[in-house]
């Protein structure tokens, strides 16, 4: 599973819109029906409006009608020789849109990985249960 997700996320790197950072990030979601959806980071001249690869993939999934119970794994990759972990904004969004025990696989450019569970990324996170 990891290999397929990794290959698709790596292939998606060509679609990154990284005019300002030139730092390409690709994400891939494994869905229960076998579908793999990718996402890339898409930047903006108003830098704060840039969207990370993980959120692009998740919003794409939800826009197509998938929900958290459909997501089996999340993978994030880059062109770097080290793995990159999801930023704080993505952790907050994953806290809401991905189930707690879903693996989040972080890989470097060669596919070396570090995997954690989604809930490990945002201990004591704020959620709808707090409202
Ligand atoms: N970025 C992601 O897409 N995902 C991450 O997990 C970390 C950061 C993007 C945001 C921005 O386009 C670029 O990487 C540099 O911060």
Record the SSE blueprint.
Layout: H1 2-12, E1 25-31, E2 36-40, H2 53-63, E3 71-78, H3 88-97, E4 103-107, E5 113-117
Parallel strand pairs: 3-4
Antiparallel strand pairs: 1-2, 1-3, 4-5
Bound molecules: tetrahydrodeoxyuridine.
Helix-strand makeup class: alpha+beta
Using the alpha-carbon principal axes, give the shape.
Answer: globular
**Total E-strand runs:** 5
> Sheet with the most strands?
5 strands, mixed
Mean pLDDT: 97
Word description of this protein:
With 131 residues, this protein is of the alpha+beta class. The chain has one domain (2-130): 3-Layer(aba) Sandwich (Cytidine Deaminase, domain 2). 24% of the residues lie in helices and 23% in strands. The protein contains 3 helices and 5 strands; from the N terminus they run αββαβαββ. It has helices spanning 2-12, 53-63, 88-97; strands spanning 25-31, 36-40, 71-78, 103-107, 113-117. It has a 5-stranded mixed beta sheet with strand order 2-1-3-4-5. A hairpin with a 4-residue loop joins strand 1 and strand 2. The longest helix is centred in the N-terminal third of the chain and has 11 residues, at 2-12. It is globular and about 40 Å long. The chain starts with a helix and ends in a 14-residue tail after the last strand. The model has no long low-confidence stretch (mean pLDDT 97). Residues 18, 21, 23, 25, 41, 43, 50, 52-54, 76, 84, 86-87, 90 line the site of tetrahydrodeoxyuridine (THU).
């Amino acid at each position: 599973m990891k290999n397929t997700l990794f290959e698709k996320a790596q292939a998606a790197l060509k679609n990154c819109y990284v005019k300002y950072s030139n730092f390409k990030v690709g994400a891939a979601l494994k869905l229960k029906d076998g579908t793999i959806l990718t996402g890339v980071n898409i930047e903006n001249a108003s830098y704060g409006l840039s969207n990370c690869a993980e959120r692009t993939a998740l919003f794409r999934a939800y826009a197509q009608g998938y929900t958290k119970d459909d997501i089996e794994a999340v993978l994030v990759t880059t062109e770097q020789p080290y793995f990159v972990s999801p930023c704080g904004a993505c952790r907050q969004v994953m806290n809401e849109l991905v189930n707690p025990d879903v693996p989040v696989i972080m890989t470097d450019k060669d596919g070396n990985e570090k995997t954690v569970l989604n809930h490990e990324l945002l201990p004591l996170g704020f959620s709808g249960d707090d409202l």
